[in-house]
Write a structure and sequence with these properties.
two-stranded antiparallel ribbon, 263 residues, alpha/beta, 2 domains, five-stranded parallel beta sheet, Rossmann fold, 9 helices
């Protein structure tokens, strides 16, 4: 736990060099990464959602891919496709962007429900099935999806049951006047991402994944809480924090699956 705390502090400090956002938001994003969850960012265009995802991937030493969702985006564009190679007479699988450690899904609500389902299957099951062959996604694996709070015409909002695939939903907020001036200056002088140091790698993140270290007593407590269907704050056995004790009525304890490590 101490090693995970040190790593989280280093990741927050590294991302803060490129992203103009409140520290508590950066801490929430890093906590979501270390806990093995997925993140939803809902905010206006131009506040740094893409930069945050790139900075988090760079600081953590993970591979990065981006998907721009549109109404004509197909599931194969996300998961990958099998292509016939005439030279050697074989089919070869060309992996899609979900085979990166960190995937930014921009404007997820603009993708069709069919494409959304393919993406959400990768998030929940941690594998992709194409042409009858199942292939696991790399570990660690994190999806950072974004939604704009404006212009809902032609969008496909995710139902609440599918939103449970995300461990956290955050908002960066509009930057202050000083931060906005700094962002404009950086665009004309240098790339802020160049200042983000690499402070971890894939193996380090896997060793610090907290959800695999929760004791059996905590998961048993989750099961009892799910059976009561009580949407109230209640004390949880250590090391769970107060954020983990809250749940929405009618949903299983597996909804979201990743406890919030924030204290």
């Amino acid at each position: 736990m101490e090693a995970a705390g040190r790593l989280a502090s280093e990741l927050v400090a590294a991302c803060a060099r490129a992203v103009r956002a409140p520290r508590e938001v950066l801490e929430a994003c890093v906590a979501c990464l270390i806990s093995g969850g997925h993140l939803m960012i809902e905010d206006a265009p131009g506040v740094g959602k893409t930069v945050l995802a790139k900075a988090l991937a760079r600081a953590s030493g993970c591979s990065y891919a981006r998907v721009q969702c549109t109404a004509d985006l197909l599931p194969a564009d996300v998961t990958g496709v099998t292509v016939w190679h005439q030279g050697d007479g074989t089919f070869r699988f060309h992996p899609g962007p979900v085979f990166a450690n960190m995937v930014l899904v921009d404007e997820i609500n603009r993708a069709s429900p069919k494409t959304q389902s393919a993406l959400l299957e990768c998030m929940e099951e941690r594998h992709v099935t194409v042409d009858g062959t199942t292939r696991p996604v790399p570990e660690p694996f994190m999806v950072i999806a974004t939604q704009n709070p404006v212009e809902y015409e032609g969008t496909f909002p995710l139902p609440e049951a599918q939103l449970d695939r995300f461990a956290l939903r955050v908002t960066l907020g509009y930057p202050s006047a000083a931060d906005e001036a700094s962002m404009i200056l950086e665009l004309s002088t240098h790339d802020a991402l160049d200042e983000v140091p690499v402070v971890a790698d894939e193996r380090t993140l896997m060793r610090c994944t907290w959800t695999r270290r929760w004791p059996t007593t905590w998961w048993a407590w989750c099961g009892r809480r799910a059976a009561t269907r009580a949407p109230t704050w209640a004390p949880a056995p250590a090391p769970a924090c107060r954020c983990c004790a809250w749940r929405v009525p009618g949903r299983s304890c597996r909804a979201g699956r990743t406890p919030c490590p924030r204290t």
